[in-house]
């Protein structure tokens, strides 16, 4: 498990507290749900400071379970219309 908290989240005391809470949540989590051989990186957010610990555990448990679920594919939107409007035509060459 890796832990990261950006400087935008708060000062060093707040960032350290978030990391300690995340480490404690992982330590109390049943690691059987984590996939063997996978690397996990937890990105700490400011909400981790005020969120109740039981709720933090529930969110973490759900995230670890869902990390390797296959995602449903989304329909691909055609970009041809937007490209035609934004790019100038290349077949017209201006003479100098």
From TrEMBL:
Start-end of Polar residues biased regions: 75-85
InterPro entries assigned: Ribosomal_Su5_D2-typ_SF (IPR020568), Ribsml_uS5_D2-typ_fold_subgr (IPR014721), RNase_P (IPR000100)
Entry keyword Transferase: no
Keywords assigned: Endonuclease, Hydrolase, Nuclease, RNA-binding, tRNA processing
Positions of region (Disordered): 68-96
Top-level taxon of the source organism: Bacteria
Keyword Membrane recorded: no
Pfam families cross-referenced by the UniProt entry: Ribonuclease_P
Record-linked SUPFAM superfamilies: Ribosomal protein S5 domain 2-like
Gene3D superfamilies, A to Z: 3.30.230.10
Protein's UniProt name: Uncharacterized protein
Native organism taxonomy: Bacteria, Pseudomonadati, Pseudomonadota, Alphaproteobacteria, Hyphomicrobiales
């Amino acid at each position: 498990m890796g832990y990261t908290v950006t400087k935008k989240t708060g000062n060093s005391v707040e960032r350290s507290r978030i990391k300690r809470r995340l480490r404690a949540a992982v330590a109390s989590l049943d690691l059987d749900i984590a996939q063997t051989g996978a690397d996990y990186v937890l990105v700490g957010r400011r909400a981790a400071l005020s969120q109740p610990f039981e709720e933090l555990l529930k969110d973490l448990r759900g995230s670890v379970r869902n990390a390797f679920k296959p995602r449903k594919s989304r329909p691909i939107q055609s970009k041809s219309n937007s490209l035609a409007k934004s790019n100038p035509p290349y077949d017209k060459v201006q003479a100098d």
